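Hi everyone,

Forwarding the result from last night's run.
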Amino acid sequence: MSVGRIIETDACVTEGAEWLAARHPEFARALADCAPLPLRRTEDGFERLLHAICAQQISVAAAGAIWGRLQAAGLTTAPAIQQASDAEIQACGMSRPKTRYARALADQGVDFAALRDLPDGQVIARLTEVTGIGRWTAEIYAMFSLGRADVFASGDLALQEAARELFDLPARPTEKQMAALALAWSPWRAVAARLLWAYYRIIKQREGIT
C-alpha cells in the first residue's frame, strides 16, 4: 500500500478545500466563512507525541505550562524520560498516569522515521500499541506531524458537532456514523477535518454572541 497524498503547504490545503467545496455544497458554504484554512503541520518524532500525552484532557493553557516546565527540566527526549525519576517528571505537572504513559513511549522505541513510509492504517496501529496513545492521538499525529491527507479523527467531539450543524443532522453522529459520513470526503478527509474544526469555532463564537 502507498502512503498517499502528503499535505506539505498551504497550497495543498487549498487544493483539498476546493475539491471538497466542488462536491459538497455544505463544505462550500462553510468554506466561505472559514477560509483560509490553517496548514497545522508540525514536526514528527518523540517530542511531538510526548507533547500530545502532556495535553490530554487538560486546557491548552495548562498543557502549555506543563510543557514549558518539561522543556526547562530537559525532559522532552526518550533518554531523559528514561533516566528521570517519577518525582522529577511529576514535579513538572505530569500526573501519575501521564508519567507512566511518557515512560511507555520512551521504552517502546518507536521508529519515527519509519512511520513516514507506512500506510495510514499501519501508522495508527503502531502508535496505539503504546500505552497512553489512543486512536485519536494517533490520528492527530498522522494528520499534522506526518501530513497525511486522508486521515480523519471520527471520535473527535468537535468534528461530530460541527458535522451535525453543517449537514443538518438530527443528532450528533457517533464515531462509527462519523467515519461512514467521512468516506465521501476521501481523499481529502484531513482537510475536511480542518474545515469542520474551523466551522466549529464559528459555531461557538455565534453561541457566545447569542
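The chain has a mean pLDDT of 94.

Cheers,
N.
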